[in-house]
Amino acid sequence: MPSTNSLAGSWTAEPMGRVAAPLREQVIAALRQAILDFQLKPGQRLVERELIEQLGVSRTTIREALRELTSEGLVTVVPQRGAMVSAPSLEEAIDLYEVRASLESLVVQHFVERASDEEIDKLRETVRDVAKVAEKTADTREILGAKDAFYLVLIAGARSAALQQLIEGIQARVQVLRATSLSEQGRPHEMVAELEAIVDAIAARDAPLASKLTAEHIRKASVTALHSLREAEAV
User: What is the reported pLDDT for 9?
Assistant: First the structure.
């Protein structure tokens, strides 16, 4: 019987196939997605032997993949314990949310300045989709998946490769915090109302208001997540 902290107990993956993408990239992508989908949970150990057995790749490939995910902030290497899925501290979370608020406000400003009317309509449609998902389920993974479509349209319309890279890195690192925020009763519906207000400001081509509403949205989202972290660190 596998232990509750073992990979076999939480994540089932097929051995890596020999497809066009380099093997190392396949392993990185598989582990990254497992972390973002919460199949591999914050604080869970990533034992090299288990990864080798499950993915059917060499120790060298696993170590290269873990180094890459460590550089992305998704994996943390702890002396004497090895690699584990990152679990942000309260101090790190506060910093991440502040950075995220600033970056997303800038992305929204660029979207207002650069996006077409068709892209604004598409952005509004993604908010409608988020609302539909939030009405039918409380599963935070499904709601986050729907909201990710909003970000895809937003980032594409902002037309900034540099901002895209920064935002994607931050989003990955705060994924567990985003899920915590959405777990609060009523928060998904508040989120939808906030996104609708942001899109209304974007449609009016009011960049200052859209940026301000975006920063407020991120800070409201941070309240629940930071409260949970404070309680956890107080235990």
Answer: 66
